[in-house]
Amino acid sequence: MRFEFLKNRGFTLLEIIVVMMMFAIIVGGLFAYSRDTLVSTQFHTVVYEIKHSLLTSENYSRANYLNVRSGMSFDDNFYTVFFADTYSSIDTANIATELPSTIYFSEASFGGDSILYFSKFTGIPDSTGTITINDYSGRQASISIDTEGVIDITYN
């Protein structure tokens, strides 16, 4: 009797296959969820980095860094913090940041221009405007700057 009990202790091949299929489905679902979370996190990080760069540029102008005003320029796939009274793309003091390949600017308009200047000593922007950031999965965020330099982020 004891011998028969030890003989029936294993799992059948069908039971092992069913458990492996369930495990594969769970892992596949977690992978899709984690990928979406990673892309979302990257998008939010870029938006906050742009806001931080705007605040940094504003503070450089307030501090009269290098005795010039500062600002930011926005192109399709990168943005630049600059320290000059007029923007020059070849200035070596510029700090250019490239966007990840899945993220782009759909709009950056400050009084009809894609360049934003902050006044010396006050840090007040010379014009108001909006920066619209998109990614290829449909996420969108708008960063708006008002006349006092207040920066607001809206996710659509």
Order of helices and strands: HHEEEEEEEE
Cα gyration radius (Å): 26 Å
User: Sheet bearing the most strands, described?
Assistant: 4 strands, antiparallel
- Return the domain count: 1
Total count of helical runs of at least 4 residues: 2
CATH architecture: 3-Layer(bab) Sandwich
What's the CATH class label? Alpha Beta
Count of individual beta strands? 8
| Residue share in helix | 25-40%
As residue ranges, the low-confidence spans are: none
C-alpha end-to-end distance: 70 Å
Characterization of the model:
With about 160 residues, the chain is of the alpha+beta class. It has a single domain, classed as minor pseudopilin epsh fold. The chain contains two helices and eight strands. A hairpin with a 4-residue loop joins β6 and β7. The chain is elongated, with a radius of gyration of 26 Å. The protein starts with a helix and ends with a strand.
